[in-house]
Write a structure and sequence with these properties.
Elements: H1 2-6, H2 9-31, H3 40-55, H4 66-85, H5 87-106, H6 118-138, H7 146-155, H8 162-180, H9 183-203, E1 209-216, H10 220-229, E2 236-241, E3 248-257, H11 258-271, E4 276-281
Antiparallel strand pairs: 1-3, 1-4, 2-3
Length: 294
């Protein structure tokens, strides 16, 4: 079930939209009622919404106009990214951004906070938002905003990585929150984003590198070609001897992402159901090891 979902294009897109729904629900029910701010482009949109309400007296009722602003902000970003990142990623990002903006805009914000304790709300909201965002990223999609800008800068050879660009941007965003609002709003907003980031990093399988050893008595070239042709990874294999049986065994070593390991295990099971596989998660890899969004 999990394998079919993660490797079917349409099921992945549906799962990504569900992830956007989870993130929007968490933000509107637990974070917005406490007047806290998420990071990135959505945080800027929330800031603009608050300034419109405070200084211009604009009333948006129980709905949050920041969702609409977020979609409008992403239009020029996606146009800029089209030639750099390609049509496929931009189209998926457009669908996810539209879904997130729609969910965020139509889900009513409670007039009275569901959880009035700031730390508890940040923890619960951060976990749920992280789960939703992690699902989106694991499905090879993106909610747009700073992630797309960071990917574009990184691909064009800038020293800014996606994470570094996001951190730098959020420093200025929360500095503005600190100056415009209370220190508590800025501090708890940072705490919320911290919890969210921790969960996202845990769930985003493309960010987790693993090392796999495969022991098989079948033709090792079949698995080798699958790893090279289908996964786009390199593989090293050699012949060993089983100490218990004294028989020759082929050993394959490959480094890949946690997301890709699911597809590898599926192939191993198909080619040699009796193969022995060990997987070490969280391997530190240096050198020529490209990270992939899809």
């Amino acid at each position: 079930m999990l394998y079919n979902t993660l490797h079917n294009r349409w099921l992945r897109l549906i799962a990504a939209v569900v992830g956007e729904l989870i993130a929007a629900v968490a933000l509107n029910l637990f974070i917005v009622p406490l007047h806290l701010y998420t990071g990135g482009a959505m945080g800027v949109c929330q800031l603009i919404r608050t300034l419109l309400q405070t200084y211009l007296g604009v009333n948006f009722g129980p709905y949050d106009i920041a969702g609409v602003l977020y979609f409008l902000v992403n239009i020029p970003i996606l146009l800029f990214a089209y030639k750099i990142l390609g049509k496929a990623l931009v189209v998926k990002t457009l669908i996810c951004t539209l879904s997130y903006s729609l969910f965020y805009s139509i889900i009513p914000v409670p007039t009275v906070p569901i959880i009035d304790d700031y730390l508890t709300a940040c923890l619960l909201g951060g976990i749920l938002t992280g789960v939703g965002s992690g699902i989106v990223l694991t499905c090879g999609c993106s909610s747009g905003g700073l992630d797309i800008i960071g990917l574009c800068l990184s691909k064009r050879g800038s020293n800014f990585t996606v994470g570094r660009f996001s951190i730098t941007f959020n420093v200025f965003l929360y500095a503005a929150c600190l100056l415009l609002f209370s220190p508590e709003a800025a501090i708890y907003s940072v705490i919320y984003v911290f919890f969210t980031s921790m969960v996202v990093d845990r769930l985003h399988q493309q960010n987790v590198a693993v090392q796999a050893f495969i022991f098989t008595r079948e033709d090792e070239s079949a698995l080798g070609h699958f790893i090279i042709d289908k996964l786009g990874r390199s593989v090293t294999y050699w012949t060993g001897v089983g100490a218990y049986t004294g028989e020759n065994v082929h050993v394959l070593c490959v480094c890949l992402s946690k997301f890709e390991i699911e597809e590898l295990l599926h192939a191993v099971q198909t080619i040699d159901p009796h193969a022995f596989v060990t997987v070490q998660e969280g391997t530190r890899i240096f050198g020529n090891f490209p990270k992939k969004l899809d």
